[in-house]
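Record format v2
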Amino acid sequence: MNSRTLQEQTSVRLLDRQAPKLSIEHLSKSYPVRGDRHLNVLQDINLEIFPREFICLVGASGCGKSTLLNIIAGLTPPSSGAVLIDGRSVTGKPGSDRGMVFQGYTLYPWLTVAQNIAFGLQFQQMSKSAQREKVGYFLNVVGLEKFANSYPKQLSGGMKQRVAIARALANEPAVLLMDEPFGALDAQTKEQMQEFLLELWSKTHVTVLMITHDVEEAIYLSQRVYVLSCRPGRVQSEILVDLPEHRELDIKLAPEFVAIKRQVLQLMRQE
Amino acid sequence: MNSRTLQEQTSVRLLDRQAPKLSIEHLSKSYPVRGDRHLNVLQDINLEIFPREFICLVGASGCGKSTLLNIIAGLTPPSSGAVLIDGRSVTGKPGSDRGMVFQGYTLYPWLTVAQNIAFGLQFQQMSKSAQREKVGYFLNVVGLEKFANSYPKQLSGGMKQRVAIARALANEPAVLLMDEPFGALDAQTKEQMQEFLLELWSKTHVTVLMITHDVEEAIYLSQRVYVLSCRPGRVQSEILVDLPEHRELDIKLAPEFVAIKRQVLQLMRQE
Amino acid sequence: MLESISVPSPKPPTRQHRYLSPSIFWSIRQGFPQRLSWLLVALSLALPLTLWTIVSSLQLVPPTFLPTPLAVLSAGLTMFAENSLGEDVLASCGRVLAGFVLAAIIGVPVGLAIGTFYSMDSLFSPIVGTVRYMPITGFVPLIIIWVGLGEPSKILIITLGVVLYNIIMVADAVKFIPNEMINVAYTMGANRWDVLWKVIVPATFPSVLDTLRVNISGAWNFVVIAELLAAQNGLGFKIIQAQRFLQTDKVLFCIVLIGTIGLTIDYGLKWVSRRLTPWADQIRH
Amino acid sequence: MLESISVPSPKPPTRQHRYLSPSIFWSIRQGFPQRLSWLLVALSLALPLTLWTIVSSLQLVPPTFLPTPLAVLSAGLTMFAENSLGEDVLASCGRVLAGFVLAAIIGVPVGLAIGTFYSMDSLFSPIVGTVRYMPITGFVPLIIIWVGLGEPSKILIITLGVVLYNIIMVADAVKFIPNEMINVAYTMGANRWDVLWKVIVPATFPSVLDTLRVNISGAWNFVVIAELLAAQNGLGFKIIQAQRFLQTDKVLFCIVLIGTIGLTIDYGLKWVSRRLTPWADQIRH
Amino acid sequence: KTNAPDNSSAPTAASAPLVSAAYNWVGYSGHYVSVKKGLFTQEGLNVQDLFFQSASEEITAVLAGKADIAWLTSGDAIQTIAKDPSLKIAYLVDYSNGADGIIGRNIATPKDAKGKNAARENVLFEKVLLQAYLKQGGLTEADLKIKDMEAGAAAAAFGSKQVDLAVTYEPYLTKNAKLGGGNIIFSSKDTNLIADVVVVRDKLIKTRSKDLQSYFKAVDKAVKLVMASDPEALKISGDKMGVTAAEVKEQLAGVKLFDVAANKTIAFDKSNPKSLIGNLELTTKAAEEFKFVTQPLKVESLYDDSIVKSM
Ligand SMILES: Nc1ncnc2c1ncn2[C@@H]1O[C@H](COP(=O)(O)OP(=O)(O)OP(=O)(O)O)[C@@H](O)[C@H]1O
Ligand SMILES: Nc1ncnc2c1ncn2[C@@H]1O[C@H](COP(=O)(O)OP(=O)(O)OP(=O)(O)O)[C@@H](O)[C@H]1O
Ligand SMILES: O=C([O-])O
Ligand SMILES: [Mg+2]
Ligand SMILES: [Mg+2]
C-alpha cells in the first residue's frame, strides 16, 4: 500500500536523516465572513518536503490549495502555524527562495515577453549580457523566441502562462511553487513542459511543490502526492509514487502508473 | 480510418440532408503588427456544425482557437469570411443564440454568484420567481449553493469558472461556445462537469463548440474533433468520434477510445 | 512545436536569495495597526498646528498676517456668537451641495456617454477640453445677465467649476473596464443600452464615487467666487469681507472651518464608498 | 462533492434570441470611421460658435456683455498688434508650465507614497484632505510675505492649486494595481523599494499621465489668481485688466485663446500618452 | 405714500421696487442703515438691497440692468457712465478724508519717490491719488516702478518691505505703515480727490422723481444718524461690514459724509472749490489720460442734480 498516515511518513523520513527543505507546521487559515463568523479554509496542515523532491498537491476546487501556496510563499499570513525553509521560519516573509507561478496570468503588461522573463534577474547582480543569454535560453525553452518583443496583450492565454513559467524558472528559486501552471496549456505543449520540468528538476537542485487538478500529471511528475480534503482543507492522505526517478512519457500507460492513478482518484472520491 | 479530408466530410453531411446550425465560410483573420506587416492568425477556415452536435476544437497554444471562437460569437470582426447560424449571417453580430464561456474569468465583481448566474435572464421576459428557480437549479448543478450570496472575490479560481459556466448555461443559447471551460477545474469536478454537460446536451437541443487542450475530454464529449494547425491557423484535420452517443466515464478506458486518442495525438504532432 | 530542450548545467548552489524584510511602517497592502494609524493621523494634524503656534507666538510673521491659533479660535467663537457664523456655514453648505449635486447629475451621465461611445467622445470632448481651461471669472458677467444675482447664479458658478472635471474623470474611468465584461453581456443578449446600464454603470461605480470625492473640494473652492455675487452670507462671503478689513484671524478661522468640513466630507465619502461597494477589493485592513 | 445532477426537461424551442444590432454611431469600443469622428469634432466646435454668432448678432444680449465673434477677433488682433499679447501668452505659458511641473514633481511621488504605504496615507491624507478644500485666495497675504511678489509667488499659487489634486488622484490610481502584480515581484526577491519602482510606478504610469492631463487645466484656472499678484503681463493679467475696463471683447478673446491652448495641450497629451504606453489596451481605432 | 400723486411717478412703490446696490465701505453706512432700520419703507418705498464684495461685480450688475441705483466711487461711476450714458450721478455720498492714502519708506518729499518700487491697484481713484501726490514733485507714474495689485496685497507688500511705496486705504494704511517701517506720506485728508457717489438711471429720474426724493430723504435720515454716532446705526453698519461699532466709528474718522443739505450747498455747486464737480473734472481727465475711457467725456453729462436740488 502506498498510502500512509502522516505519522508513519514522518518516522520514515526521520530515518532518512535528511532535514526537510520546506516544512509546514500546524498551519491554519480562516477568513472572516459576513457577521462575526469565520470560514475555516485550512486546518492544521502539516507537511514536509525534502531537498530535490517534486511534490504535487491535489484536491477539489475551492478546498484551499491556492491559499496554502500563498501562505507558503509568504504572501498571505496564516491564522496560526509556521512555514520553515531549511528550518528557518519564513512565515509571512516572501523571498526569491520560493519562486511562484500563479494560477491567473500575472505578467507585467508594460514589459515585453523578454523583459518579463528578465524581471527577477535585475535583483541579482547579473550582467546585462548574462541576463540576455538567460532570457534567450528560457524563451527557447517555452518556444516563444518569435514573441520576445511582443507585449502580453498580444499573446494567447497559453502563451502568457508559458512566459510566467519561464519567468519563475529563470529566477532559480530553491523551492518552486506552482499553482496549476499547465492548466491553460494545450495537450502537446503541456507534455513538453512536463518533460522539460522533469529534466530540469533532475539536473538541478530545485525542490518543487505544484498544485494540479490533473492526477496523471501529478503522478508523472512527483515522488509524493498530497490529497487535500475540503471544508476545512486538511491533508487527507499522502501517496508515495514508487516509480523510477527517470521517467518517460509512456510510463503513463504502465500498469504501476495506472494503479497509482486509480488509488489517488479513489482517495479523492472518498470524502 | 476516422480521419477524412474536409471534402469527404462535406459530402457525407450532404447525404444527411440536414442544414448546418453553424457554418463558417472562408474565414480569415490577421492582426497588424509593428511596421506594416500583418500576423495571419487564421486562414481560410471552413467548418460546419449540425444541430445537436457536440464539436471539440484542439490545437496548440497560440494557434488562434480563442480568436476563432470570438469571431464566431460576433465579438471580433474577421478580416474576411462569414459566420452563419441557421444559414443567416451573424458575422460581427453577437447575440444570445451563441452563449460563450470565456477562457479567463469574466464574472461581474459587483454581482453575487446568484446574480451573476441570473445576469442573462433579465434580458428575457422572465418572472423573478422563475429566475430564482433557474438560478437555484444551476447553483445546484455546479455545486455552489452555499456561495449563492458570495461575491466573486471570495471564490477560488475553479469556483469562478463554474459560475461562468452556469451563467452561460442558464441563458439557454442555441449554440454554446466554450473556451477551455474546465481548464481550471480539479479532476473530480471536471469529470462531474463533463458528465453533466453530456447529460444536458443529450436532453436539450443545444449545439456545442468547445475548445479544450485535453484530448481525452475532447473525445469523451464530442462527435467530431477539429484539429487546428498553427501559424497561420487552418483546419488541419477532422476526426469523427465513432462512439455510442450515450457514454459513461469508463468509456475512457475502452480500446476504441484509446485508439481515437492515439490518432488525435498523432495528428497534432504531425505538423 | 517547441524547440528541442536542453537543460543547463546545474547552477552553483551559491545563489543568494533575497527576502522581504518585514516592516510595519512601510507595509504595502498588508495589515496596518489601527493604533499606529491613529497616531500618525494625530501627528499629521498636530505638526502643522504646532508649527503655526511657534511661528505666530514668536512673531516671526507680524500677527496681522499670522495670528496665533488661540486668537483665531477666539475670533471664530466671537463670529459664531455675534456674527451668526452658523448661518453662513449653512448657506455655503447649501450652495455647495446644490452646485455639486447638479454637477454630478450632469457630469456623470455625460462622462459615461463620452467614455462609452466614440461618437459622444468626438462630439463632446473638444468642447469639454476647451472650456475646462477657461477661467470661470470670465463668465461672471454673462451669468449675471442671464441668471441674475440670486441663488441660481451662485449655484451655477459652482456647477460650472466642477462639472467638466466630473465629465473628464468619469470618461477616463470607463476606459478601465475590460472588454470581456462587455462581450459577455452581448453573448447573453444584452444590447448597448443594457451594457451601459448593467455593465458600464456598475463597473465604474467605485471610480465615480472616487471622482465625486476628489471634485467636491473644487466646489468648495468655487464658493468664494460664487459668493462675490451679491451674497448676504456664506463662508466665502465672510472670508472676502474679513480680508477687506485685514481681519486675518477671521479669515483663517473660516479657512480652517472649511478645511474641517472638507475632512469630514472626505472621510464620510470614503466610508460611504466602502459601504456601497462591498464587492470591491478592500485593499486595506 | 457536487450534488447529484438532474437535467431539466428539454426547453421549448421557442426561446427568443436577441441580437446586437450593428450601429456605427452608437458603437462601443468597435471601430469608428475617422471621417465621422472629424465631422462630429467640427460640429462640436461649430455649433457653439454659430450660437454665439446668432445671439450676439441679433443683440439678444447687449454687446457690452456679448460682442460678436468678429468684434472679439478684431479686438484680439489689435491686442496682438498693439498690446504685445504674444508676450502675455508666453508669460502665462511659462508660469503655468513652471507651476505645473512643480506640482507634478511634488504631487506624483507623494501620491504614489500615499497610495502605496498605509503609513504615508495616515500621515498625509488628513492634511491633504483638509487643505484641498481651503480657498487659495485666503493664503495670498502669507504668500506675499514669505515668497514676495516675483515670479516664484505666482508659480507657487499655481502649484498649490494643483498639487493636492495630483496627490489624491495618483494615490487613487495606485489602488487599482492587482495584488498579484506586487506579489509576483516579492517571490522574485524584490523588496518594497523595488516594488515601488518596478511595479507600482510603471503600472500607474498611464493613470498618472491621465491625472496630469486632467489637472493641467486647473493650472490655467489658477493663473488668473496668480497674476492678480503684481503681474505686469500674462493672459490672466490681461483678462483682469480688460474686466476692469469693461472690455468684454478683449476678455472673451483671451478666454478663447486659453481654451485653444488648452485644446492643443489636451490632444497633445493624449497623443503623448498613446505613444508612451504602447502596451496599454488601445481601446479605440 | 406720503407724497402727493404726481404724473411723473406713475408706478406705485409697491408695484415697482427700486433695486439699490452697494458694497462694503464705511461711507456707505447710510445705505446699510436705511435698509436695516426700515427708513425706505417708512418713506413708502420698496427698496431691494443688493450687497457686493467688490465694485467690479456691482458695476457688472448695474450695466446688466440688474440694479437701478448704485453706490460707487466717482472713478467707477465715470467708467460705468462711459459704458452706459443713461446713468447719472445724483448724489454725493462722501469724500475720503484720510481713509485713503499713500505709505512710504524713506520718502520725505514726493521727489524721493523717483525710481522707487510702488504698489497700487489699477483703479481710477488710486491712480488719481498717486497722481496728485507725484505731481507735487513733478513726477508721474512713469517715474516709478509700478506693481499692479489689489489694495490689501499692496499693503502686505509694503508691510513685508517688498515695495517702498503703496497706495492703499484703512485699515491697511495705518497698520502697514508701522509694519513696513514707514509712514503715511500722503492722504486724502481735506481733499476732494476721492469721492463716493450714487448713480441712478436717467429714466428713473424722469419718471420716478418723487420716489427718488423719498429715497434720498431716507438716506439723509440715516446719514444724520451715522454722523451723530447713533449706537444702533454704528452697530448696523458694523454688522454689514463684519466689524464692531467701535471700529466703524474709527473708520468714519477717515471720511466726510454728506447729507442732502451738504449735497445742495457743496456737492453740485461749481463755484465751491471742494465741489463734486471739481472731483469729476479731475477724475475724468485722469480717466482719459490713462485710457480708462475710449471717448472724451463731458463732465456736465455725468451728473444730474435735479433730485437733490428739488428737495
Ligand atoms: N490583439 C492582438 N494583436 C496581435 N496579435 C494578437 C492579438 N490577439 C491575439 N494575437 C495573436 O493571435 C494568435 C492566436 O491567439 P489566440 O488567443 O486565439 O490563441 P489560442 O489558440 O486561443 O491559444 P491558447 O490555447 O493559448 O489560449 C496568437 O499568436 C497571438 O499572439
Ligand atoms: N478573500 C477571501 N474571503 C473569503 N473567502 C475566501 C477568500 N479567498 C478565498 N476564500 C475561500 O477560500 C477557499 C479556498 O480558496 P482557494 O483559492 O485556496 O481554493 P483552491 O483550492 O485553490 O481552488 P481552485 O482549485 O478552484 O483554484 C474558497 O472556498 C474561497 O471561497
Ligand atoms: O471705496 C473707496 O475706497 O472710496
Ligand atoms: Mg486555486
Ligand atoms: Mg485561447
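Residues 1-7 of chain D have pLDDT under 50 and may be disordered.
The interface with chain E takes residues 62, 64-65, 140-141, 144-145, 148-149, 228-232, 237, 241, 243-246 of chain D (CB under 8 Å).
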